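Hi everyone,

Forwarding the result from last night's run.
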Amino acid sequence: MAQVISAQQATGLVRPGDTVMVGGFGLVGAPLSLIAALVESEVDGLTIISNNLGEPGRGLGRLLQAGKVGKAVGSFFTSNPDVIDSHEAGRLEVELIPQGTMAEAIRAGGAGIPAFYTPTGAGTMLAVGKETRDFGGREHMLQPALQADVAFIRAHRADELGNLSYRRTARNFNPEMATAAAITVAEVDEIVAVGELAPEQIDTPHLFIDHLVVATERLGDR
């Protein structure tokens, strides 16, 4: 059974310098309560694996402004000009991964697959320093899997065991991230009794979830 904790308690699971996966596509599906608590915590030097770093002063953008992100691994950073400024100033290291490749790298990390070949990015700057190989006359590059120390994800509902159900596009990267971290914390709108989620409604089984946090901050709040 997943343990119900506060967002502040969840940040205690993160150590300085950790790699943290954070769900969300823009701000949709982002665990905003967990991010807000992380902003107020004492941890820093974090590597954040997420599609992007929110927007200026919103979502992961708050964490960046607080100076707690040392490296960002993702696929779409131009929605937040602070990312560009921080990178150009030498305060932020950025690793750019095509969006589909990133999703597969997280899935592979959760499945115990260390790396895979993909044609996406081969022959471009993204392939610099990476092993390449020809398959069927087409160049492919080797993409390492992605894993994290902690994953902060967002779901709509959970039962008391920790089974999760997502809401529409807020699902995005969250199910894959749940499988690819040593510790997974799920922020949810509500926790219901076991049996209230029908089997076909369960998107992430509880065995991947260590802790649940009830959301106190939502997309319309900031």
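The longest helix spans residues 99-111.

Cheers,
N.
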